[in-house]
Amino acid sequence: MNLWFRLLAVLVASLFRPRLALTDSSVLRFRVWPHDLDINIHMNNARYLALMDLGRLDMILRGTLWRTVLRERWQPVLAGSVVRYRRPLRPFQRFSLTSRLIAWDERWLYMEHRVETAEGLSCQALMRGAFVAKGGVVSPSAVIAAAGFSGPSPAIPAWVGSWREMDIAFEQTPAEPPVEQGEAA
Fold first, then answer.
1. φ, ψ at 101 (rounded to 5°)
2. Which residues form the signal peptide (predicted)?
3. 88, 86, 95: which is closest to 31 by C-alpha?
4. CB 3.0 to 4.6 Å from 98: which of 45, 80, 114, 143, for a disulfide?
5. Which of 13, 27, 23 is nearest to 61 (CA)?
6. Could you tell me which of 145, 27, 155 has the C-alpha nearest to residue 102?
7. Is residue 92 classed as helix, strand or coil in its secondary structure?
């Protein structure tokens, strides 16, 4: 239920907060509540990802895409992520979530999320995603044009490029049958 309240807060706040250009950062502020915790009494790893959904939603709502997303019934989807956890978030601790579009290529939009406290970086994630419509995946160039952006993609940082290469290698790896229990691996 907590996420529904946070979702509602992001929706309402987006009406009053400044608009964002395509490559601007969204910053949301939160506090760790008891239902965000896992058995180790720090924020659950899955909760970080759920809050990052809100960061991407804020980027859409405060940017220029929301009208097109509603009119065309586009749905934002994630196709991959890599997450690095650095410091735990403790009960009632305040933190900020910064979300930004890093770059895009012919297939994907690349976004970064940073969860930070007064002590520093707690979590960093790189996501790749797209929008899907009734006819299939919407090309990143169509998304960028719908956002009113006419320039080229910012340069893809080397660390994003490394992840792209690893991801391509995963796609080319044949699926292996599962190992039966009792068999040697």
1. -85, 120
2. 1-21
3. 95
4. 114
5. 13
6. 155
7. coil
Q: What is the pTM of this model?
A: 0.89
Of 97, 77, 87, 86, the C-alpha closest to 13 is 97
For 12-169, which CATH superfamily applies? Answer: Hotdog Thioesterase (3.10.129.10)
Other residues' Cβ atoms within 10 Å of the Cβ of residue 22: 18
Q: 10, 28 in Cβ contact below 8 A?
A: yes
Closest C-alpha among 158, 83, 157 to residue 122: 83
**Host H or E run for residue 16:** none
pLDDT tens-place string over residues 79-132: 999 999 999 999 999 999 999 999 999 999 999 999 999 999 999 999 999 999
Tell me if 52 sits within 8 A of 125, measured CB to CB. yes
Q: At what angle do helices 45-62 and 2-14 cross, to 10 degrees?
A: 20
